[in-house]
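Final report, Chapter 2: Outcomes

The project's central promise was a pipeline that accepts a single protein chain and returns its three-dimensional structure in a standardized token representation, suitable for archiving and comparison. That pipeline is now operational. To close this chapter, we reproduce one record exactly as it appears in the project archive, with the input sequence first and the structure output second.
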Amino acid sequence: MANDEDNSTESSPPPPQKHLVFAYYITGHGFGHATRAVEVVRHLIAAGHDVYVVTGAPGFVFTSEIKSDRLFIRKVLLDCGAVQADALSVDPLASLEKYSQTAVVPRASILATEIEWLTSINADLVVSDVVPIACRAADDAGIRSACVTNFSWDFIYAEYVMAAGHHHRSIVWQIAEDYSHCDLLIRLPGYCPMPAFRDVIDVPLVVREQRKSRAEVRKELEIGEDVKLVIFNFGGQPAGWTLKEEYLPSGWLCLVCGASDNQELPPNFIKLKRDVYTPDVMAACDCMIGKIGYGTVSEALSYKLPFVFVRRDFFNEEPFVRNMLEYYQNGVEMIRRDLLTGRWAPYLQRAISLKPCYEGGVDGGKVTARILQDMAVGMNNTPQKFSGASRLSDAIVLGYQLQRAPGRDADIPEWYSVAEHELGMRNSLSNAEMNQKSSSEKSCVEEFEILHGDHHGLPDTINFLRSLAELDVEHDSGNNTEKHKMREQIAAAALFNWEDEIFVARAPGRLDVMGGIADYSGSLVLQMPIREACHVAIQRSHPSKQKLWKHAQARQLTKGQESTPVLQIVSYGSELSNRGPTFDMDLSDFMDGEQPISYEAANRFFAKDPSQKWAAYVAGTVLVLMTELGVQFDDGISILVSSAVPEGKGVSSSAAVEVATMSAIAAAHGLDIKPRDLALLCQKVENHVVGAPCGVMDQMASACGESNKLLAMVCQPAEVLGLVTIPSHIRFWGIDSGIRHSVGGADYGSVRIGAFMGRKIIKSVASASFSNSSSSANTPEQVNELEEDGNELREAEASLDYLCNLSPHRYESVYEKKLPESILGETFLETYLDHDDRVTTIDHKRSYVVKAPARHPIYENFRVKAFKALLTAVSSNDQFSALGELMYQCHYSYSACGLGSDGTDRLVKLVQEMQHCKVSKSENGTLFGAKITGGGSGGSVCILGRNCLRSSEQILEIQKKYKAATGFMPFVFEGSSPGAGEFGYLKIRRRFPPTEA
């Protein structure tokens, strides 16, 4: 870092012998890129160089700051950034489609035009912030290039692809490839992983300099020093905000950026002019309310301005910039609901109590200009080589995973590395810790009095109890790093009255051994509860005794309510998935008069704030208990969720959270709910409150499973056949592909719709056949026994409840040729009216694959039955080979449905190569089969092998080979643990040392 540079921004890079020409490409997304680029451009021009700015951003952003005939503005849109639905929301699919129209379709002509233009101006260096195609055009023109940025668009678009636009995946690879042509990354603080770049130099913050003092600005605004002043800054975007006088505490004024000319504001809100120089105004304020972006954060840090921020959805840059903001005690997070309803007071009061402590460099504009100048004249910079994958086609998968687990890559600053601590809080134990079980148990029992239940000696449960005991221990408030890391723990410590009882439940994730997506079609499934589990601690309190966070207290006072039951939730691991760490609501919000609100209304309620949508999995259990069992909740509820089940890996993290939460709530309220019934209730949470169209096997495995056994269940809807003990010579592993899986994604939902369409068509064909055969028989005497049996079969198939009740031979002989490969939603609905699935909706304009999704569950049900029977056969290589073959068949059937992925296919191929190599054959083999799990489209694969040391060694070899090919080290799931029903629940009370008389 160049932090030892002179912080003065008055001096610019000394002019070299040669006059230079810079082509500076700047994305048109938001003002942040343009305002930081202005600082760099200003220093380059001051050094006597020409700068051609190529951008889709408004030209006045540059011309108002730089008055020089050496500045040239060329208005060209070469990328589109993110398409925002409003100031806080991004439309992922629209962003990908617009980028395709802007930069992909006309790519050839863009490259030709830019190469010609760069040659015509005799450019010495191309600079990009951070337009991908500029790097490729520079390389093709024989000109060096540099990117100046804290993020790259491949990293941002990766989540868009995973969330909404799987078919746009090629965009991500193309962007990464374009960036790989860049010669140097000049990396700004608060940076994301950017593995597509080869070389990197770190620079200080690029910040616009302050021109007027705080006193001067306040004098111009006629605002005295005794007035508390907040600036409302959402990137200059007029969002049609509704602002009311009561939003501000008494004695406060608010300066509003980006207000429309005709917008009426209350008397304590002041509209700023369009051309106001924001840095001066910010420096004159006591705090700021806004959304996180590089520009606002860097200037808030520079001016030590406390920043009350609201999260944005699908903004991958945010966790890294936010971590920097909070590390320097410069930020307070506000819930979006409180922003929109005007409950600002507690956040503003908290903000002005902060003591921002950033002392780093703020001369990044000058430093960057010097580096660019040296680069343009051919001087050799000595950048650090960027570690990790640099040009791999799946580099963005690595980058995406780095966001989910900060700290795994050496190039992420140490103070981003919250993963180690949070994983510790999430019950991840080392082998050494597991070997100290007896001492841990003793410590755990000493901390808590266990009034009911047993921790079963489970290391993760013991560790969770220990973490609970540590919550009310005071931490060193002078340690900034520890304060940053303990943000969630501080919130959790404020949840509980430690003198009262706390209930703890535990529910594991599951490894889908066989059955997978056939569950919603009624298949037999075989599921193994894994070692990783979710723990939930819950306490119910009378409203008058419940400990509330300050903003929840303020909300109740605003409503004139002093003792209304409140639901408060803390979720550990929020940094690993970019979600808000806390959630709270009045339980009365779940009521519509005397009745609970509808599931549709609840779904809309949680969808309003994407950063808190996760709370639907937890709070949704309360609504389902209200609706389905008529439970009344008169007490406040405080919930702590700590899950070690990784998200997006295809091992049912959501089911573990739902089952653990409902189990804890049931225990705290004296509800006796059988594990099977609890699982069905939790499925309603996911289907109706969350809105994910999953089957029931995930919740059933988490609730009803037992350690080292496979839960055998026929999903019609949830008939448990029993538990199949895993033979001692057989072992199952799960390996994560690194590609995020989601049952809420388009692929899973469209395949489910295709399967239900197939069932409807089969029923229609069977019904027509039965009607024709019945009418063709003149008399009962003319109907022979075979025809009568055939009619009964057709009649049964005409009322087919589940696809899996149709045998493979009947499907092939009668129905396969009747099914279309695919069908347009509109065409299907015109003929069949509906597909009879309550949790999915057909898009009229979308084409759905039908034959493969309908075929899969019919054959999968047969495969699972065969697999179950083979498990109890005599141990032999033939047994292993047959079991493995069934898994391979299942895997390729997933792919036929469109639910495969590059990562899972690669892992399965590695298992096959290991199985068929000469060494394995000479040793009678150790690994025999593999398949994608759960909902597909990423996630994990399940691997079958011999229970021996060599198998574990081969799993490690596969890990290493996968990392060598992709840059991502996959996580291995091994081991099993009890389901929620077998675990039961703990009722505990904190022990306190005896007081002296």
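Archive annotation: The chain has 37 helices and 33 strands.
This record, like all others produced under the grant, will remain available to the consortium after the project formally closes.
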